[in-house]
Amino acid sequence: MAENYLTKLDDALNWARKYSLFTYPFATACCAMEFMATMAPKHDIARFGAEFPRFSPRQADLLIIIGTITEKQAPALHRIWAQMAEPKYVMAFGVCASTGGFYQNYGTVPGCDQIIPVDVYVPGCPPRPEQVLDGLILVQKKITEGTTWVQRRDRGEKHGGEWVTPRPSENAEKKPGHLPVVS
Ligand code: SF4
Fold it and tell me: N- or C-end of the chain: fewer Cβ atoms within 10 A?
C-alpha cells in the first residue's frame, strides 16, 4: 500500500519536474544560433516550461550541449554536469554534439556521450527549432516514464549490461589528467 502512495508521489514530482526545466546551454559553435531561434517568440520554448536558461549549473537541471566539443573543453563540460542540480538531464543538440559531426580529427570529441551520459540526441546540422522542441518533448516523456539516465541510476538499474554507477565524476577524480569516460 505504502508503495502505491510512493509511486503516486513520484508521478506527481516527475510531472512537476518536466514542466519546470531550467536549461544550461553549453553553446560552443554555430548551433547556438538555432538555440536562440528556439528560445525566441516565434517558436516559444516557454510553451513547454523550459524558458529560463541558467548560467550557473547549480541552478539548472537540463544541460543542452550545443555545438562541437573539443578535447580541451571536455573536462569543463564534465565538471559542469557534475555540478548540476539533481535529478539532471542531458540533450545533445546537433550532429557535432551527438557524434563529433564532420570533424574527424584528434582535437574533437566524437560525441559528448564519451564524457557524460546523454538522454536525447537531436540530429541535424543545425537542427531546426521544431526538432529541438521535439527533443525537449522526448526528454519530458522520459522524465514521466522514469527512463532518463539519472532516474535509472538512482534505481540502481543496469544499463547495456553494465551498472550505471560508478558516476563519471568519481572516475574523473580517480584519474586526474585523463578524460573521464562513461563506462
Ligand atoms: S552541427 Fe552543424 S551547425 Fe551545429 S555546431 Fe556542428 S557544424 Fe555547426
Answer: N
